[in-house]
Amino acid sequence: PCLNLENGLWPGATLSTRLSIFAALLLIGIVHAWVPSAGSHWLFVIQRSYYLPIVFAGLTGGWRGGLAAALASSALFANGKPPIWTVPPANVLDQCLEMTVFCLVGLVSGVLTDRERRQKIALHDATLQLQAVYLELQENFERMKRAEKLSALGQLSAGLAHEIRNPLASIDGAGRVVQRETQSEERRQ
Question: What distance in Å separates the CA atoms of residue 163 and residue 134, rounded to the nearest whole number?
Answer without folding.
Answer: 43
